[in-house]
Amino acid sequence: MSLMITDECINCDVCEPECPNNAISQGEEIYEIDPNKCTECVGHFDTPQCREVCPVDCIPNDPKHVENQEQLMDKFLKLTADK
């Protein structure tokens, strides 16, 4: 499943550069994660890098975008196919 950033985000700017899929961007008020690009770092790292660096622990699973490991890997392969 993709991840999401909650309104507890303090806009510290540390998560955005850590995302290997460029899924994180500044929203109107807080950072946001594009569910079409988020693979929870599957294919890149063992754990989601945004969660590793977030100082306020505001990046839970997104219940609106449930995906299993296989689906996340398929998304990773599609995102990196052109690279």
TrEMBL record:
<dbReference type="InterPro" id="IPR047927">
    <property type="entry name" value="YfhL-like"/>
</dbReference>
<dbReference type="GO" id="GO:0005737">
    <property type="term" value="C:cytoplasm"/>
</dbReference>
<dbReference type="Pfam" id="PF12838">
    <property type="entry name" value="Fer4_7"/>
</dbReference>
<dbReference type="InterPro" id="IPR017900">
    <property type="entry name" value="4Fe4S_Fe_S_CS"/>
</dbReference>
<dbReference type="InterPro" id="IPR017896">
    <property type="entry name" value="4Fe4S_Fe-S-bd"/>
</dbReference>
<dbReference type="InterPro" id="IPR050157">
    <property type="entry name" value="PSI_iron-sulfur_center"/>
</dbReference>
<protein>
    <submittedName>
        <fullName>Ferredoxin</fullName>
    </submittedName>
</protein>
<dbReference type="GO" id="GO:0051539">
    <property type="term" value="F:4 iron, 4 sulfur cluster binding"/>
</dbReference>
<dbReference type="GO" id="GO:0046872">
    <property type="term" value="F:metal ion binding"/>
</dbReference>
